[in-house]
Structure formats: structure tokens, C-alpha cells
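Need residues for this backbone.
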């Protein structure tokens, strides 16, 4: 089985080729780039909204990309059940587009954060995490200045109650601490999924750690999960 994949490219995207390399060359998914001015995603099973600095992060991260022509079809695709993975800036774009709740604010430190983090897997009943075990801790890097996940108390309660928190920043042993939180995100949230279960947004970069030579291959679990979810 394979997954026809489209990687969106905005002016300022800088992780598009990383995502392309992983899906096409490591996992063998038929993959193509989709320029932000295109209005039709074409025949795809998975859309990746990659990291970077779409439109220079002017106004605020992801705010301008939300109005790109291609995003109308991304929203349509997502609402019809298509798989969408937003990574870092892609997570910001999905929140700005209303496909995921909450928003990503400036890091609590007010500094850009580029480091390895540990993520505890909170929900394995998703197309993006089914190859993982509940509470499994994976090592995945971050690189962002606006990764501080924020939502209303009601929204946070709903996300927790419905199992929509997929990844949480923790210590290497899986313990949730303030020290393990690299950006001040509410509830140490690193990634969430839509109520429908087909849209995942996460700030850490799984596409940057899919080969041991890069320091960790734990990111491959996300893409292996997608492959297994299609094969079921």
C-alpha cells in the first residue's frame, strides 16, 4: 500500500523538501509538491503542510498562508475526511484556518527554540500514531519561535476529555514537568488532532528525525503509522 501525498509549498516554506524526502524516498509514497497558488490538490490521500516561515510570518505565524488559494481546497479536503498533517508552521496554518482549535503564541521565553525534545504519546488510536504504544516516549526536535499552544479553558478541557491531545512534552522518562516544556504550551501540549481524527498538528518535526544518522529515527513512527492505517 502507498499514500499519494501532496506537500504544500508557500513562499518561506523551508521544510517542504524534508517532508518530500521522507514520504517519497524513505517510505515510497507517490509525492508531489503543490504550489500555494494552485486551487486543486488533485488526487491525493495525504496533505502535508510543512514547517518554515510562510510569507515571512508577517502579521503572525500562519496568518497570511491561511488565505493562499490552495488552502480553500485543503479545507475542503480535510472536511471530507482527507488526511492532513501540519508540522510546526503547518500547525500554525491549520489553527489559523480553523481546522484545529487554539492558536500558537510567542514562546514564553520570547526566544527562538531549536533543540531536541521528548514527547509522550497520549493517543494511539489515530492514523498518525497507530504504530506507537500508549505512553511511548519519542525524541523529536523543535525549531520555532511561536510554538506556545494556547486555547480557552473550555477548549483545553474538551481536548483532554476527547483524547485530542496526541503528543505532550515530557522528560525522557515520560514525566510531565515545566522544565520539559520548551515554549510554555498549555498542558505541555506538543500536538493535537481534530475531533474527526483526520487532521494532526504538531510543533516538533518528525520529518527531521526519520534516520539514525540524524540523531533519532523516532519521527518515522508517524509515517509508519500512516502507512499502517491505510493498510488496515
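Answer:
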Amino acid at each position: 500500500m502507498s499514500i499519494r501525498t501532496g506537500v504544500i509549498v508557500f513562499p518561506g516554506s523551508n521544510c517542504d523538501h524534508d517532508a518530500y524526502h521522507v514520504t517519497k524516498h524513505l517510505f515510497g509514497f507517490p509525492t508531489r509538491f503543490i504550489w500555494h497558488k494552485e486551487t486543486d490538490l488533485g488526487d491525493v490521500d495525504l496533505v502535508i503542510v510543512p514547517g518554515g516561515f510562510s510569507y515571512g510570518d508577517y502579521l503572525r505565524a500562519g496568518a497570511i498562508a491561511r488565505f493562499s488559494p490552495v488552502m480553500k481546497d485543503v479545507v475542503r479536503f480535510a472536511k471530507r475526511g482527507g488526511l492532513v498533517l501540519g508540522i510546526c508552521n503547518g500547525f500554525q496554518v491549520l489553527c489559523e484556518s480553523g481546522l484545529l482549535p487554539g492558536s500558537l503564541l510567542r514562546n514564553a521565553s520570547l526566544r527562538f527554540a531549536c533543540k531536541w525534545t521528548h514527547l509522550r504519546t497520549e493517543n494511539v488510536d489515530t492514523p498518525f500514531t497507530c504504530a506507537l504504544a500508549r505512553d511511548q516516549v519519542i525524541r523529536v526536535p523543535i525549531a520555532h519561535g511561536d510554538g506556545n499552544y494556547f486555547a480557552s479553558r473550555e477548549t483545553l478541557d474538551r481536548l483532554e476529555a476527547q483524547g485530542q491531545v496526541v503528543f505532550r512534552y515530557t522528560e525522557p522518562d515520560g514525566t510531565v514537568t515545566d522544565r520539559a516544556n520548551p515554549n510554555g504550551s498549555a498542558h505541555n501540549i506538543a500536538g493535537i488532532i481534530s475531533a474527526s481524527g483526520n487532521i494532526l498538528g504538531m510543533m516538533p518535526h518528525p520529518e527531521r528525525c526519520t534516520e539514525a544518522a540524524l540523531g533519532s529515527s523516532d519521527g518515522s513512527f508517524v509515517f509508519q503509522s500512516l502507512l499502517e492505517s491505510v493498510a488496515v
